[in-house]
Batch of 2 targets.
Target 1
Amino acid sequence: MGKITRLPSDLANQIAAGEVVERPASVVKELIENALDAGATRIAVTVELGGKKLMRVEDNGEGMPPEDARLALERHATSKIRRADDLAAIATLGFRGEALPSIASVSHLVLRTRARGATSGTEIKVNGGVIASEVETGMAEGTVIEVADLFYNLPARRKFLKSDGAESAQISRLVTQMALAYPEVGFTLTSSGRRVLACPPVTGFRDRLYQIYGDRPDLVEVRRDGGGLAISGFVAALAEQGPVRGPQNVFVNRRIVKDRTIAHAIIDAYSSASIKERSPEVHLFIDMPLDRVDVNVHPTKAEVRFREQSLVHEVVRRAVGDAIGSGPAPELTLQAPQASPAGPVAVPIPDLNLGGAYQSRWAPATAAFARRPEAVPAGPPLAAPVSSGAAPTAAGPPAAAATEGSGDSAVRRMVPLGQFRDTFIIAVDEEGVAIVDQHVAHERILFERFMERLTAGTAESQRLLEPIVLDLPAGGREALLANTEALHRFGFDVEDFGGASLRVTAVPAALGGGDAVEAVRVLAQDLEGLDRGSRVEEALRRIAATMACHAAVKANDPLTYEKMTHLLDELRRTAYSTVCPHGRPVMLRLTRREIERNFQRI
Ligand SMILES: Nc1ncnc2c1ncn2[C@@H]1O[C@H](COP(=O)(O)OP(=O)(O)OP(=O)(O)O)[C@@H](O)[C@H]1O
Ligand SMILES: [Mg+2]
């Protein structure tokens, strides 16, 4: 007798619901996305008690005929994709065919819908995933979905919901984000009888921003195209007291996403303007061809994967940097007077349309550019081998090809010629000229060193003669205290000191005393941001990345010749010498061929 049984479909749906429906705001998100996919121009959202009692989303979209209305409630039933190929370029917000059945399985759901041109509508009631009734009904064209008593049949889940106020706040944040992304659609949100948001349709984002936030002289406009990406939006302007803090709304092809690469690029742009600001307000739209971003990587589609992660980082960093006036990394232009009618050839960011051609241009020498997304890790595996020129194999890092290999992007023994703006090392080898971002390169080196020590045992720790006592916000404090073990392995000894205080008695030897306080603060923020229950390796990796970033030489730091040589040598020895822990390129290269061609020597 075997022991495996097939789960009944309502139980399977409840399990699936666990992924899609985390809280009321996730239900509202799915319903609004469906309304947008149905071409609605007006969407009205009503919630009671933070959505726990009731959520209703009403739209004037295309509606559904009765047979579709029934199918819509079944799992894996969708009108949005038909075949596997469709997954490569998804143009709708939904595509999994899971949202409605998932929501229906953990609530009392009523679906009312009337297809455009139909004379009447259909009303279907579902209780805990089981259809209770279906009747014909009179209604306006469009769809109304009501979800009552979320998680009534999953008490454990219901217990995890926050207060009504907190859940309402999440819902209004979500509706605000959707409204920002779709200015041509009218949105209203009514929460427990109170009109929280009312945005009639407008022609553009600027007007929508005004509807929601009023006049905002403290924001500056972002507008930049590059590498096949179009970046637009508004971000916090630099100000004496620092840019305003606020929501960080990032949209990729109008889909709200959380993305570390982009978050890092934003922080990078601000920090290169020497502003210590970790949460400037941004409303940023990144538009790119559908096939350059995979949206099928996360159950609620909150995360996406870019085919060219470093490119996205670079374009966003420049776009934001330009907008706030900090100036992007210097653009390097190679004059080639008679080379082409188009004028200067050099573009620091490869245009995706150029295909292979960008290899020979000023392209960031990162193998990540040329590779498929799965080959671009957020960082090396924990046990990243650190060897000399020989390419690491088992881990299969993206640099493998670059270090060994074929050519342009290899990190060979390079001779430094000097610094540019005290920020970039200009170096040469037999095969070309390289411009190395000294901070990013050093960050990469230190990161690997920290990770190596971690896997080997304990990082060198330095006991402080006078322990540091510092006050931290509760979330950060908790996050640190929950990770004392991991922190200890890195050389930090942190303990509770009562109240809001923490005491730090030891720090990694690699950190100077001055940096330690800042590093602990940053760590607290980073760890707090990590999802609970995420792997401890991830926390460690973050710690290593943060420490590396803090201990690395900075931009605008004059370096001696010896230091430059040392840095370049160390760089050659790292396993992933071409990308920083956050995926930024370490260097730009101009190949010998390119130089010769431009001087018409070949
Ligand atoms: N408001 C609506 N107006 C018209 N049709 C809708 C509406 N909501 C859902 N549908 C139809 O029901 C189908 C199922 O919706 P559901 O949200 O479950 O899946 P999906 O949107 O296709 O994919 P995902 O699970 O990724 O959201 C949709 O494909 C669509 O055809
Ligand atoms: Mg959907």
Target 2
Amino acid sequence: MKVAIWFLVGVWVGSGDSAALDMADAQHLAAGRAIYHEGRLPSGRPLTATRGEGSRLVGAAAACVQCHQRSGMGLAEGANVIPPITGPALFGARLPDGYAPRRAPGMDFRDYPFRTRAPYNESTLAQAIRNGHSNDGRRFSILMPRYTLDDAAMKALAVYLRSLSPQRSPGVDERVVHFATVITPRVEPGDREAMIGVLNACFAEHALDQTKGPSGNAESGDRQFWKLHVWTLVGPPQSWHRQLADYHARQPVFAMISGLGGEAWSPVEAFCERAELPCLFPNVQPAADAGAGRYSFYFSRGLWLEAAVFARQLAARDSTLLRSGRVVQLVGRSDRAQRAAEMLTRALADSGVPVETWRLDNDQDRLSGLAANDALVLWLTPTELAGLMQRVPLPPRTESVLVSGILSGMQAAPLNPAWRKVAVLAYGFDAPARWDQRMQRYLRPWLKKYGLARADERLQGNTLAACNLLSEGMLRLRGNYLRDYLVEWVENYPETMGLASAPQAYPRFSLGPGQRFSSKGIYMVRFADADGQRIEPLQDALIVP
Ligand code: HEC
């Protein structure tokens, strides 16, 4: 028995598989990871390097991750290409995407040197990293720093690079990439149907592209079929993490796409972060602390963006909103309203603008006592607002009345004509006329093509935009199915992603490294007439806090 086990272990260790790391390798791996990600040497001292023009880089600023990214797949910024430095890219005979440059007879084709050089070995790699030239003798551009690394550190780094992203992330089979969309309890059945309808059609469209076969261009690497799994959650939010983990254990997925939920999305985000699973643009109200991780992306911060923009505008003091008085916020019963009011209070704390928080239930009768130079902010749901209209049919004579659009239902906010005349609404969506044009162009023909009825077009448009963004990102992976690489595509290439996001309801798509909300500002609007739902901007520009 003992002999058999030793035999097995021997085979296992000897196989050279990266899973078979011995103790020394595990130590190298940890030390190499610290160099790559943090710029920390095995001795505990900071990593140092010089740039071509002589400047010095120290510690985290010198860390490889700054340029070559977490996945190790690098980046392309205009003409500057930061090459992949994963194990397969450096030591493999071919690049991981099976790239083969096209050559026309008689043409002198100069490819990027990292695509044509021979595989590195540990010694040529060390020279490259220390002296800044590749194994065919070509000097690297000044973008690639020259590193001071002793042999132990170099060994650790090489072990780490060898381990970097050699395989696919979970959720990818030989032929199929699996995705999930999550639906929390108590969503409207119509919304569920609308979202799933769009996702199914988008996935079918992708499959259709597949059956046309590879386009002949070796670089279009996304040749897998996609499969959508609908993960429906039940019961209280505390139990969702467990349910998601069970779903994921049964069928791992490469990413989560879109999704439908109410306000309690945090457990889903927590799961995405723990599972290192990209979760792209769900139809939800993000929690107040959402987006702090790496893997969860949203279209908008929603209510919290409204609070930040209100604070910015009120603190400015030069606007028509508040010149000299105080801010009084009337806060409804919902947790979200109270949270938003706290945020506004905090954001104004250092501005010198006095803020008072009044409770709807206790204080609504005090509104008539507000001074003409005060500003009133309403954090109320439609039901609460309708109740207030009954009780206080005429607005106070304040300088301004700011209304949370997200809580009150945007243009449909149940305001009396007299209130409507003075109200300024936070409007996080794109201007109605422009939005309608985009729906006309990018959503409605698409729905028609797939026989889908028009439902909540914001929901349908956002879902389609999320799915388009996924398609665009997946295509760019060129067959390198790494979750981190997908995240890097989404956050680093807003211009590539911009068109894909065209059917979304928000003003514009922009993201950058570390950013997790694509929509950065809101409009302040007022009602064009006292009884209609038509709105016009108070000022034309998007206000970014
Ligand atoms: C400031 C950005 C930056 C940082 C930081 C950086 N690199 Fe690079 N690296 C580059 C660029 C740009 C190139 C391509 C140079 C060229 O081909 O002219 C490159 C090329 C390389 C190559 C050659 C790849 C090939 O296929 O020939 C290796 C290996 C490499 N880097 C390793 C590292 C390691 C290891 C670190 C961290 C210790 C690191 N780089 C940090 C920008 C960077």
